[in-house]
Amino acid sequence: MTTTHWKSLLFSRRMLICVFTGFASGLPLYILINLVPAWLKSEGVNLKAIGFFALIQFPFTWKFIWAPLLDRYAVPGLGRRRGWMLLTQLSLLVLIASFGLFNPKLDLWSIAYLAMALAFFSASQDIVLDAYRREILSDEELGLGTSVHVNAYRIASLIPGAFSLILADHLPWAQVFMITGLFMLPGIAMTLLVSEPQLVRPPKTLREAVIEPFHEFMTRHGWRNAMWILAFIFLYKLGDSMATALATPFYLELGFSKTEIGVIAKNAGLWPAVFGGIVGGVWMLKLGINRALWVFGVVQVVSILGFAWLATVGADKVALAMVIAFEALGVGLGTAAFTAYIARTTDPRYTATQFALFTSLAAVPRTFINASTGWLVEQMGWISFFFLCTALAIPGMLLLFKVAPWNSGSEREKSVQTQS
């Protein structure tokens, strides 16, 4: 592949759209996993309760249930993809701003319900953004486009995890959430400016939208191979998902201020994420998705150990920057390859439902298993907890022998899949 060719792919309009889809998708999730826990911690809510707050994210696990509705029906005047994108994005803007109306000490249940609504509309936005991105990217662009999307997704964490935390040291929380919500506007603008994809026909009936995506997947791979693929999707991100579940409370407990976390920790991850997005995406063009899962997965596993090292060092700003930078690079690369693998596994006729099914399965650890992280830290301590997270990352890597062998012809698999 020539330098001119990959540059033309990287600087295309479709890659710019992937930047906006990634940012719009990542912002509400990082509000749930970074900003809300920091808000609750700073207002005196105990760590165990914050850990159980992960359960409010269950819509990310069950979004495949209503994904067929988004595959089957369109919003009049805007289309099947753009219509749902706009409705979910406007709802997210309002919900994010609404957090500032509540007091964590008095309204914890109300905050939980609001957070669950935010998770529902965020998961719904993910369904349609994933489908839209898959439908506008060619097979050749899939790895690079997914990498750009994933890293823009991670860069979105700088808003709730850095900018908003700094604001919280100077402004009331009500204003912080209002300002944070306004960062949904770039995604809304993107939705209004892009065109509706017309690559495949939508399902003709709701029954077709519900039944056929599951039937097609099982028929194409066979039951045994399908089960291996689903197990891999569940396990590949388990370790790093647990390790980062309580990242902000972890930094606060080490003794860092909210401003230090905002300025040092989160910005230390910006350039490695950008670098990883560009280099990782281009590297995926040459390596292929299968080999990228191996290479990036090893870096991802090793990056988890950085948190254990930080726990031994304590509130050292340089150490914090190093750990976050390596985590942003390693986990970002692993996520990019993983998401590209999921996209490749979908059939273009049932993009939204199959993509939602696979990403829902990947979200199970973040939603349910992560709910135990607060309890685990209290029982084990931070260092042992991060070693446990590292161990839990190994089974997903071992499953690569089954689902993505190093020498497998991944592009041929995709070609066969597209024709099915």
Automatic annotation (TrEMBL):
Keyword Nucleotidyltransferase appears in the UniProt entry: no
Keyword Membrane tagged: yes
Keywords carried by this UniProt record: Membrane, Transmembrane, Transmembrane helix, Transport
Alphabetical list of InterPro entries matching this protein: AmpG_permease/AT-1 (IPR004752), MFS (IPR011701), MFS_trans_sf (IPR036259)
Subcellular location: Membrane
UniProt cross-references to CDD domains, sorted A to Z: MFS_AmpG_like
Protein name: AmpG family muropeptide MFS transporter
Chain segments annotated as transmembrane: 15-33, 45-62, 83-102, 174-194, 226-248, 268-285, 292-312, 318-343, 355-376, 382-404
Principal subcellular localization: membrane
SUPFAM superfamilies: MFS general substrate transporter
Domain of life: Bacteria
Gene3D superfamilies named among the record's database cross-references: MFS general substrate transporter like domains
Membrane topology: Multi-pass membrane protein
Coiled-coil segments: none
